[in-house]
């Protein structure tokens, strides 16, 4: 009673003044009195119709009804089951009291009668049990309104309703029985079950025990698979609720129903060129189901990895790759959201799964005679697509394919055979006849003809996957030499040196107004830098090739100090310089590790240089990689928005040179960020070691200090003088180093001497 009293007080405040409150309150009260105390049945039915009408139209009436009406109508439902018209009217009125009135707009902080009424009704003793009992009534509308009423309660008071249903014997079973009812009833019950199973594990278990998987796929078949309406979406949402982070339910699905009914939903029926919004949502829903199966279960579940591996194996055995390739690669008329999801899940299927990798490598697409390997087609998507999201999704396939797969990397790298300049720049229509390597090299050098580095940086990202942790591939690609665009520009040059040229070109791509000519500039440099960082890692021959051109180090030193470059670009340039120290095996003067450290000290300063690492780690790109958020579940409320993928707004990025391009958050994953972090610690330690113990420039050999036979006194004195001058220079150099170290220590203490 206390709760109701407070609620009645709220009614008065909402109505505004005493007269208004009295009028509304008394009208609702009179109707309730006629319903509970009326003599004539027809008068009572009329009163309930009037009450339902006023509650539907007036927020004030909703509040007044909530304060006093629930006990009256619940009594009708308990005691007057034989009067179907009264029961229908009572259910409709209750439903109206729980539904917000859309046209009545008020302040955001205004009291919401529908929410308050839901809370009050869910607290009424025995109300949920009463509603569930109504599901056994023969009247269609009674069952229909009851299900809608339960759904409204669940939407506004989910926890209380879930607890109440669980406490009622056979409560869930009654709802499950509704799935076998007439179509409209079935659909309402299905929607209610999707809400009930979103988070309630106990309800999920009961629903699965009641054989829901078979019912779900039976309904999907009746509705026409992906071509079906919103009912198919509800079925898939319910299925996803049951298998999300639940390995045991996934195993049960796999061993009872199998994955064939699931995969059949991916088959494109009817017009494969027509994708309605509902068809798109249905496809995204079943793709989410596949994603959940690939995840395998909760992270803490010890059987997660084995379950994931088994799911991957069975899915590929059931030809899911064929359908994903059709949706993601061959169906370029499919919505971008569907193509991207299909491509991502191809990557998930092959990562750390040798048999699935082999299956993908053996796939061919197209029709005779225009057929080509699936990997070639995926590479073409990367090089040609106008969607950044699609580029990232397709690039992920190569990352997954190459991860811990040296044989696969070698296979792809073996096709990298330099072609004459005329072939590398042949019309793109002829790509169908190109090998994987020829197409990749074409992408790497395409900027020479149109001045756009976007294609080049995409190809560079693919190349980085081929080289990752594979010394043989790194050295093989080092031997690649490309023809100059024009004979007058010189002879062939190594691919690495060409990539450094493109890196420098990216920073100079400015339009007449001083702005960058394309937002591609903002991510071209970081992606090319990423390629070079991976290439030089643990590969002394790559470092030697990089240092063969003296301007390379000079350019990196300038890039590290460039105030207009982003923190990510400056940091990656600093890492690349560090690799030229720690993986440098040359003893040639000017190129050895000591010379590189000297150049860093003189041109940048060690304190400033090490600071670039810290700034990079604090940048949005590296921070976002550390805190990647899981994808949102697809539900009725967000399905339409998730079906539309919008790429990064170029207008927002082209004018913000100080900020990293949002695309980089997707490209620089946690694995790469951790890899760079490990390099940093090694670089700091090695540079401090070299700087603290410089290479001796003068080898003191006592025998050489003696006058040789035949050497005149003047020549001997001259030689000793030169020796002493060298020693003096070396002493001055050491003193200078000590002064610099002292200055750095005074500024920052010992922070950068200690590896992170």
Rg of Cα set: 36 Å
- How much helicity do the residues have? 55-70%
Class of secondary structure makeup = mainly alpha
Query: What is the average per-residue confidence, as pLDDT, rounded to a whole number?
Result: 84
Which stretches are low in confidence, meaning pLDDT under 50 for 5 or more residues running? Answer: 1-21, 510-518, 648-658, 749-756
- Report the principal-axis shape: elongated
- Major pleated sheet: 2 strands, antiparallel
State the helix count.
43
Number of strands: 4
| N-C termini distance | 63 Å
InterPro entries: ARM-like, ARM-type_fold, Vesicle_P115, Vesicle_Uso1_P115_head
Subcellular location: Golgi apparatus
Keywords: Coiled coil, Golgi apparatus
Protein name: Golgin candidate 6
Characterise the protein shown here.
The protein is an all-alpha fold. Helices cover 68% and strands 2% of the residues. It has 43 helices and four strands. The strands form two sheets. Strands 1-2 form a two-stranded antiparallel ribbon. A hairpin with a 2-residue loop joins strand 1 (364-367) and strand 2 (370-373).
